[in-house]
Amino acid sequence: MTPTKRRARAASVARDASKRAKAAAGTDDATAGEAEAKENARDGAGAGAARARATTMDDLTYDGEIVVASTARELEEAMARIEAFDARAGTTATTKHCGFDMEWKVSFKRGAGESKTSLVQIAVANEDLSEKLVVLARIHTAGLTRRFKRWTRDGARGKTGFNVRGDARKLVRDYGLEPSRVIELSVLAKERFEGGCPSAPSWSLARLCEHVLGKALPKDKTRMSNWEREELNESQIKYAAMDAWASLLVYRALMKRDVVESFGGEPYECDPLPEPVESSDEEVEDEDEDEDE
């Protein structure tokens, strides 16, 4: 074989080897691509199933009275109504807790600090939910009135909410007012579900509503709206009231033995969790006497 033919044959062998290598690589890429596509499809199907569950659920609704308190006088009157409501409803294990939430204006400017709390939402109801009331306390305009401070510090009324501990810390930072006896729903849910319960960071109030109440909690961009505007609009009022109301209903459902279920679907018996009281009635009364003087 001449040198020219040997070089031509070597080149041909090299080309064939290159083609085989590319074909093998292509097969590996295709296999990897198919696996990735299947993984994405499975994830998409899971997310789609979750969305489907939410869309097939009825929305959570609130058909009770909503009181918007924008001045000190309005806030005192609203808190007096809550006190009267408490007196009528009694102090059973169910009625001595309220739904609690807060809102504040979110700034999108770089370097801007966090705004102070604008709104505190309080939801109360009697045992059978035939009487209910939501108060929207606009404390950035009304200020911290005597009744509002007394109620917030009162350990006889549990304040239940999602991320309520964070809200409590913010209220201390903003106004030096520390809510007594706050009950974190994400932690309570983890305690009340046997095994298979997601960790607290994976919860949201909307997810708790779906899992515990079987209802969808409508969520939109209202949370990011201007809570310091002169008058709250209808969507803001509805959004704020619903969050406090949902918090109350989720708490009550979690504390009822007949509705508490594990993620496996099996009901189980559980006793109410102990809830430490951070301040006594005597302390609250003493503070009020000092304020009156």
UniProtKB/TrEMBL annotation:
Q: Which organism is it from?
A: Ostreococcus sp. 'lucimarinus'
Where in or outside the cell it occurs: the entry states:
Nucleus
Q: Which residues form the 3'-5' exonuclease domain?
A: 66-259
Q: What is its main location?
A: nucleus
Q: Name one GO cellular component term.
A: nucleus
UniProt-listed Pfam families: DNA_pol_A_exo1
SUPFAM superfamilies documented for this protein: Ribonuclease H-like
Q: What is this protein called?
A: 3'-5' exonuclease
